[in-house]
Structures are given as C-alpha cells and as structure tokens.
Amino acid sequence: MSTPGRGLHGHVLDTLGPEITAGEYPPGSVLRTDELAQRFDVSRSVMREAVRVLESMHLVQSRRRVGVTVRPTAEWNVYDPQVIRWRLAGKDRPRQLRSLTLLRSAIEPVAAGLAARHATAEQCAELTECALGMVANSRGHKLEEYLVHDMAFHRAILDASGNEMFARLGDVVAEVLAGRTHHDVMFEDPDPAAVTLHVQVAEAVRAGDAVRAEELTREITVGALQELDILAP
Amino acid sequence: MSTPGRGLHGHVLDTLGPEITAGEYPPGSVLRTDELAQRFDVSRSVMREAVRVLESMHLVQSRRRVGVTVRPTAEWNVYDPQVIRWRLAGKDRPRQLRSLTLLRSAIEPVAAGLAARHATAEQCAELTECALGMVANSRGHKLEEYLVHDMAFHRAILDASGNEMFARLGDVVAEVLAGRTHHDVMFEDPDPAAVTLHVQVAEAVRAGDAVRAEELTREITVGALQELDILAP
DNA sequence: GCAGCCAAAAAGTCAGACTTATTTGTCACG
DNA sequence: CGTGACAAATAAGTCTGACTTTTTGGCTGC
C-alpha cells in the first residue's frame, strides 16, 4: 500500500508476513532460510534481507545452527503499521479492531484536549472543514465520501495535539475507520449523533475549550466501542 | 540491550541508527551503500541487511540510482522500541521524555481502569507486592531498588489491562522511568505522595473499583508530567 | 525550446565458496 | 551409571565478484 513494489524481498514479506501474523506458524516454529529461499524462488541474499526485517519487527529470531524461530505473539512489535495491516487482513481481525479501538478511546480524548490548547488557526479551519464534509455526506449512502472526511478529521485532531506520538497514530486510526466501513456491517448512513459530536468537537477546539473537547471526543470513542460490542460481541 | 551482538549488521545499526535518529543526517540526506560498507568495513550484503532494517523502521528509503535517503522525522516509526531507545540516548532526550510521558498520561489511567475489571487474583497479588516493594525502598537513598519495583508495578498494570496494545507499552514506560532515575535530576527519595498513590491504585484494582483506579492513576501521571515541567521547562 | 534517446550511476540480484557458532551425539573415564 | 570432554554435523553468517535493472540527467537533433 504505502510502498507496494519495493523489490523482491518486499514480495516475500507480502506473503510471509501475513502468514506469520496469522499464526500459521505457531510460536517456536522453525523455518530454514534456504528452504524459504527455494519456496519463494529468490536468492539467499534476498531471503536474508526479508528475515532481517521480520526480525526487526520481533516476529522471528534468527539463531545459528537452529534456524529462524517464530516468536510468541506477546513479543511482536504490534505498533508497527506494517504488522497492524497484516493482522487486520488476517482472521483475528475483530480482536484487532477491539484492541485498536480501545487504544483510540484512551488516546483521542487526550489528544483533543491538547488540540484545543495548541491548535493553530489553520488547523482549526481544517478541522471544521472535515466536520462539514462529514455532515454533507452523512445522508444518502455516501459512506465512502463520509469515510474520507472522517479519517481526515481524526488525523487532524491527532496532528493538532502537537504530540508526535499521538500524531503517528493517525495511520492506525484511519486503518480502523476504513476497516469498519469496508469489512464490518455498517448501517447505510452513519449515526447522526456521531456526526453532531464531530462538529461539536471542532467547535470546542476552535473555542479553546479543552475539557469540552476531551469530553465530546470521549463520547465519540465510547460510541465506537459500543458499536463494536454490538456488532462483534 | 535486548539482543546485543546479533551479528555484524547489528553492530552497524548500533552506530548508524543513533546517528540518524539524532539528526546527524538531515532529512533528504543521501547515503550510498558502498560508502557505508566501506566505512563500517563490512561487505555490501551485510550493509544491505542493515539498510533494510532501517527502511522497515521508516528511517530511510532506498531508491535505485539515487541512494539511501533519510526520511523526515514525521514518518519514522516512533513506536519501535529500538527507535525509542536510540532517540532517548540522543540529544533531544528531554523532548522525547515529554512526548512519552504524555503518552503515559493518556494510556495508563485507562489501563488501570481496565485492570480493575479484568485483573486475576495473581495479578492483584503481583501488583500489591510491587507497591509494597516501592514503599520498602522509598526512604534511604535506595533509588535503584525503588525503580525496579516501580517499573514492575506499571508493567503489571498494563499487563492486567488485558489489552495487547497497552501491554506492549510496558517496555516504553520502563524506559521512561529508568531514564528519569538515571539521567535527570531526581530527589534523593521519591515523592511520598506518589508512593501512597501506587499503593492505593493496587487497592482499588483489587477491590474492582475501576473509576477510582483510573482517577488515582491519572494523579500519578499528572504528577509525572508536572515533575517534567519543573525539571525541564 | 522540446522530444526523445543514450550513457552513467547506484541499487538490486544471484551464485558459490568459505567461516563460525551451536547443538548433538559419542565415547572414554570416573 | 553418570559425566565430562571431544568430535561431527548443521544452519546461519560473511565475503566476493559478476551481472541486471531502473532511474536520472544530459545531449543531440529536429
């Protein structure tokens, strides 16, 4: 997606990564570099590069005379966007969405509070623009257009927080929102109450009301959690 | 630290990673693999593996005919524990600690609330044990022993939350706490009020009082933030 | 001034030989 | 029997050199 064809080793990762994150090789499984190279029909150098990347994600560990062993799930770098994408594409996608939505519910309200304190005029404008875009597409089966503005809105909040760690979750949130629209059951039109809340958050941020921005955003994320509980209990 | 001597490419990363994250090569800078291989006195294959790892962290991008270009900071995988460690070792360490402490202040209260709902008896026991260890080492210049229990406490909370994403922040929090004790000015003994709060959190979790656990933990993280504002304004 | 082509540059790929660490098994000795 | 040391097997690690591919930038000619 972000970097589609970045060489042979990338192609190897595109299939091996999802396989590992999907649990096809249980923790402790041992892979041999030579066998993998044969399987993907690449040279060992290319295979080694792929293994190094998996190793840097803590998905596997390469040890002499043993091979490439799959690490337990608890040790994976689950914040790596690539790992997140692989896991969201896999079969325990609902579990992932719950974890990530819970993360959102912790981060986004705080980020909104910070945004109310630090947002520039441009960022406030961007925010209201996104909110208006959501309103404009909230009726009439325009889920795709709505999604675009929804993603942009949350990304704008996280950016405006002024905190680098929060800002870097923009991709994750976008992934979650996109997943909700595309793969899970969603009503034909978004919840009108949610749309209103987004507009109010934009207003609160512009007004510099941190407490209100935080509280309203909390309502949004709680709504997202409830939605998940209803649709995938 | 976690995997010290994992081969030649690891040694290369140990010096090249910190250099890049420290901003010694400004975004857009171009490195050549051959030159790097010469500089570190390793073969090109080894150098390529190192570059692949840096690429997977989004620190650099390798493009044909142009070379290995350093990416802008905003694109780095700042949640990668390795990247966090490199940056904390660098010169903008104070800025890092502020970002990470803000992240803590968003995550940990929510995690504590979840822990109060989901913690097992064993986890509650572990928690109170850690809190008692903190109390026992809160006086008499035993900062190192105190730190061990403090790290274990917060890790226990995050684990007990039952959320994978929260749990994986245990290393980050430990790193922040260790950094505060080792590098920044810290009083000879920890703040007694903070120690008490930890004990109370353990109690609240055991009692299953989610609201109280969350509120108390929020007080702890607010304290940590204020401490940073005082010591590095 | 522009279109298209050519040449250089740097990453990408491959194959093969060699090195090194680690495990496992064996055998002799207590 | 157990135990320790030694030897063999194994798979990752490393290096080298030749070759390919893509991209860029300049040059030519219209």
TrEMBL record, chains A, B:
Gene Ontology molecular function: any one: DNA-binding transcription factor activity
Gene3D superfamilies in alphabetical order: GntR ligand-binding domain-like (1.20.120.530), Winged helix-like DNA-binding domain superfamily/Winged helix DNA-binding domain (1.10.10.10)
Provenance organism: Streptomyces viridochromogenes (strain DSM 40736 / JCM 4977 / BCRC 1201 / Tue 494)
Cited PROSITE patterns: HTH_GNTR
Taxonomic superkingdom: Bacteria
Keyword annotations of the record: DNA-binding, Transcription, Transcription regulation
Span of domain HTH gntR-type: 6-73
Alphabetical list of Pfam families matching this protein: FCD, GntR
Protein name as it appears in the record: Transcriptional regulator
